Amino acid sequence: MAKYWQQDIETASRDQIAAWQNERLVKTVQHVYQNVPYYREQMKKKGVLPGDIRSIEDLKKLPFTYKSDLRDTYPYGLFAVPMEEVVCLHASSGTTGKQVVAGYTAHDLEIWGDICARQLVAVGADKSDRVHVSYGYGLFTGGFGLHRGAERLGATAIPVSSGNTARQLTILQDFGSTVLCCTPSYAMYIAESLEEQGVPLSKISLKAGIFGAEPWTEEMRKRLEEKLGIKAYDIYGLTEIMGPGVAYECEAQKGMHVNEDHFIVEVIDPDTGEVLPDDTEGEIVFSCITKEAFPLLRYRTRDIGVITRKPCSCGRTFARMSKPRGRTDDMLIIRGVNVFPSQIETVLIREGHSPNYQIVVDRVNNLDTLEVRVEVTAEIFSDTVTNLTASEKKLSESLKSLLGVHAKVTFCAPGSIERSTGKAVRVIDKRKI
Ligand code: ADP
Ligand code: ZN
């Protein structure tokens, strides 16, 4: 079984990768300067001309691109080719405001197929695999991205899309799906539904899961691997840059390889914009260097993570990014303390609780309050009030010691927290309502 989809590229020397990046960056900067008036203006404002960008060393001279730039130019203002060359549009799911529109040329789609095929091969898939895609199909990039990867690889794509969980279970069994692609929260919902329906693992043929599009923890990974009898891999991407496949996990499961032949990754201090050294946590920034239709430069993802260029045991030489902890805009500030929902998830699962939870933030008498609602089993839920209160208190103490801030814990009946078939809604911030 092949270990890589494009071995020469995925295991290229760091010098070779740098050479590709230098050449492609120069070309892309010329391309956007000539074809995107908005970028031309931004560069002029910063006093940079395309001739000033001769290698990746010069990247920091370029202005950042922010989500607000995409809103200001909505829908097509940053496209760098005429609409005749755009063969497909996608849009972000709009989790954090007005949606962003991305355009692709035929060549862009080929590259997208390749990078998703790299992910599939990295999880051990080949032509004989049946790839069950339960990411949403439509404007969201998830479904079509993995679908294109499966077709490109020559595997069998099963475009189930998200939702209709009963049907997902039937197809998993009847079609013999071997690789499941969806959000980790939806994978958990599918796993729970299999259990509820009494479907034993011997009735399904899954061997791997490709889960992404939202933050999830190592604890959640373990839980999913056990429940589904698979190896679970992380995939990262965003509409603005391409969709899923910007970075992909290998068998080592120690961070996701960034497809550096197509994207340059930087980590910056989100407050000052200063570029940080490898292995330091900060905001992840991407520049597209091969895209034709919608090539963003220095796009501020607002995702917080770490990049390393240390060698990986899988033999791939691309930089690796850590699981992003979350977005800067998901970060809750509770009485001055920064809290990421993923930290709460870590504690819940580590303490043996369910990954079905919701975080409610409010402000009472000018003081922020944090409540964690977590589902418990029917057995625990029907326990005596004294026992319940004691268990809630115990969890509250564990949360306090990790987060550094008090959280009220409320146990809820099984099934009472709404399940998501796409990206889970973990936080209800009443301060903003
Ligand atoms: P929206 O911005 O509307 O949610 P996207 O689908 O483009 O639309 O979302 C991309 C974002 O999803 C990323 O910027 C990141 O915050 C999140 N994301 C994607 N993959 C992962 C992953 N593997 N782990 C954590 N977060 C992820
Ligand atoms: Zn690796």
Overall description:
The protein is built from twelve helices and 21 strands. It has helices at 7-10, 14-35, 37-46, 67-72, 106-122, 141-153, 165-174, 184-196, 218-228, 341-350, 378-381, 385-403; strands spanning 88-91, 101-104, 130-133, 156-158, 179-182, 208-212, 231-238, 243-249, 256-258, 263-268, 282-288, 299-305, 307-308, 320-321, 326-327, 332-334, 337-339, 357-364, 367-375, 408-412, 427-429. It has a nine-stranded mixed β-sheet. Strands 10-11-12-15 form a four-stranded antiparallel β-sheet. The longest helix is centred in the N-terminal third of the chain and has 22 residues, at 14-35. The chain is globular. The model has no long low-confidence stretch (mean pLDDT 95). It binds adenosine-5'-diphosphate and zinc ion. Zinc ion is lined by residues 250, 252, 257, 312, 314, 316.
Assembly of the depicted chains: single chain
Query: How much helicity do the residues have?
Result: 25-40%
Distance between the termini: 53 Å
Shape: globular
Major β-sheet profile: 9 strands, mixed
CATH class of the largest domain: Alpha Beta
Strand pairing plus helix content: what structural class? alpha/beta
The number of helical runs is 12
Number of separate strands: 21
Beta-strand content estimate: 15-25%
Report the CATH superfamily of the largest domain.
ANL, N-terminal domain
From the 3D structure, determine the CATH topology of the largest domain.
Rossmann fold
**Gyration radius, in Å:** 22 Å
Write out the strand line-up for the largest beta sheet, numbering strands in chain order.
Answer: 4-3-5-6-7-8-9-14-13
CATH architecture of the largest domain: 3-Layer(aba) Sandwich
Number of domains: 2
Mean pLDDT: 95
The low-confidence runs, each spanning 5 or more residues with pLDDT under 50, are none
Bound molecules: adenosine-5'-diphosphate, zinc ion
